[in-house]
Amino acid sequence: MHGLVSAYRWRRSVLASSSPPTTKRMEEMAEKITNPDVDFAQWYLDVIREAELADSAPVRGCMIIRPYGYSLWEAMKEALDQRFKATGHSNAYFPLFIPESFISKESEHVEGFAPELAVVTHGGGKKLEEPLVVRPTSETIINHMFSKWISSYRDLPMLLNQWANVVRWELRPRPFLRTTEFLWQEGHTAHATEEEAREEAMRMLRVYEDFAVNEAAIPVVTGRKTESEKFAGAVESFSIEAMMGNGWALQSGTSHYLGTNFARAFETTYLDETNTQRYVHQTSWGVSTRLVGAVVMAHGDRQGLRLPPRIAPVQVVVVPIFRSDDQRAKILEESARIVSVLDDAGIRAQLDDRDTVSPGFKFNYWEVRGVPLRIELGPRDLKQDSVTICPRNVPGKEGKSTRPLEGLVEQVPQLLDSIQEQMLQDALRRREEMTYDVQTLGELEERLPESPGFYRAWWDGDGEDERRLKEATKATIRCILLDRPEGSGKCFVTGRESSQRVIVARAY
RNA sequence: CGGGGCGUGGCGCAGCUCGGUAGCGCACCUGCUUUGGGAGCAGGGGGUCGCCGGUUCAAAUCCGGCCGCCCCGACCA
After folding, report:
1. Residues 368-387 of chain A sitting with CB below 7 angstroms of strand B
2. What confidence score (pLDDT) does residue A31 get?
3. Considering only Cβ atoms within 10 Å of each terminal Cβ, which end of chain A, N or C, has fewer?
4. Residues A30-66: pLDDT tens digits?
5. For chain A, where do the domains classified as CATH 3.30.930.10 start and end?
6. How many other C-beta atoms can be found within 10 angstroms of the C-beta atom of residue A303?
């Protein structure tokens, strides 16, 4: 027994000492982040862990959003909030607890949400008269208040938004993409006419599209949801659909025309100019912390996270490099000066002056975290009054170049803009390369497993056809395209002539 | 809920078959040498072995029960 153990140890130590240190180090590095081409799901989890975006919580399905992940969310929140204010909305806050009876008032709504409700039955040590639902969304409680606040056409439109957490009991959670509790924004509006409400639903869908493209550098497809994918209680749902690195679709934002469904359930009515009692027409729309997952999966690479400059918590990191003490003082001083000037120019810059870790470690540290631009300042640079710059979107040493120190700060905004633009173009190109046209279900079945991506097709099916599609391919109809070409063709499932164009894909 | 796996320092694991000093890597702390792509050496700290019970002189290891977690299949932003 002892012989076996020591023989095993001996072999292991020989193996360890016989491999050159570089090989060993590379293996260790490779282990930290799985190759996305080998296992995309594991890669996603590895990146979230290594970039310190989130950690798992003691409660199943919940997660802790760590400071770096939260500041990314905050940056997105700010860009969105500005857009909401610019389109006339005001923020408000409604309660976390909703009387159970409220949820039941709209029949489709209760049916859709019943399986994922968390219900509070006790409070203050006593059983409650009426159980309280932890909000899965706030249409009901908001309508309860709208019905009090709205009495005349002069009160309309009412344009509200709230930033909040919601709870939907999840069977299969994934960090950011599907968690039991998540953070989001829910807009709720009431209008006098159907036309106005439909306009609003579309306006906010386009706001989401604008945000995705111009802030997150993620190209999206805009469309209408099919009957079976529609929000529980809506007349029509719309979404933006983004493509992730593995060709899967991620619903990244939704906007609903609710019609008068909730107004009827809650008696949300107003008197029009002719003194006639009418129901309000409503919308609701939301995006969530799922967007963090979208950014990870749309832009991340083998090295980790890549963040578009406009939403990156740290846009520029300065890494000083020095050997001797007198170099140290000079270089740190110059590095700090660069950071301070960038900071004055409104650029989110950070100096990594830790002397407990090596420069090489810092390069990797900030690359995993996706910081768009790194500036290195070492003795060689200082001697020739230059710096070395490394844009994150060109990984490794290939992207490095030397720039004169003079005028550097003025160039940084342009550099960031061009990184932002390149990231969008890269994502756009990949989506186009992974988007195909397909004529029949059989063809889709054959091609999808080998070539994941978006499949464009004509569509004239119903819920039953959607079930067949999912059973055959695991893919679903992501949306019916809003921006579609003229013409018509044969539905890829039913063969009927149709002018509806859809995107079919595997989805998260 | 059906199928598969796992609970041992903060993390990842070995040890269990065949009971006998609780170990390895990473991380952490101290010191010296280092610093342009995840530094090296030396020393050090840290574990009720998921929980409860049983067998035994002795249990991480054997037996029984319970609990928890992860992965794969039916809903959703």
Report:
1. 368, 376-382
2. 60
3. N
4. 468 888 888 888 889 889 989 999 888 877 788 889 9
5. 63-299
6. 17
Query: How far, in whole angstroms, is CA A190 from its chain's centroid?
Result: 27
From the CA of A417 to the C1' of B34: give the distance in Å. Answer: 38
Say if residue A157 is preceded by a cis peptide, omega within 30 of 0: yes
Q: Whole-model pTM?
A: 0.92
In CATH terms, the fold of domain A435-505 is Translation Initiation Factor IF3 (3.30.110)
Which of A298, A275, A316 has the alpha carbon at shortest distance from A412?
A316
- For residue A231, give the nucleotide whose C1' atom is nearest its CA: B76
What is the per-residue pLDDT across A366-398, written as a single tens digit (0 to 9) for each?
999 999 999 999 999 999 999 999 999 987 788
Q: Which of A200, A192, A201 is nearest to A263 (CA)?
A: A192
Match 């994502």 to its residue by tokens: A427
d(CA A194, CA A178): 33
Top CATH class, A312-430? alpha beta
Tokens of A170: 């999840």
* Residue spans in chain A of domains classed CATH 3.40.50.800: 312-430
CA angle A390, A396, A398 (to 5 degrees): 75
| Positions on chain B within 7 A of a protein C-beta | 1, 17-18, 34-40, 68-70, 72-77
Residue A251: CB less than 7 A from any atom in strand B: yes
Q: What are phi and psi of A120, to 5 degrees?
A: -95, 125
CATH classification code of A63-299: 3.30.930.10
Q: How far is residue A424 CA from its own chain's centroid?
A: 15
In this structure, is the CB of residue A164 within 7 Å of any atom belonging to strand B? no
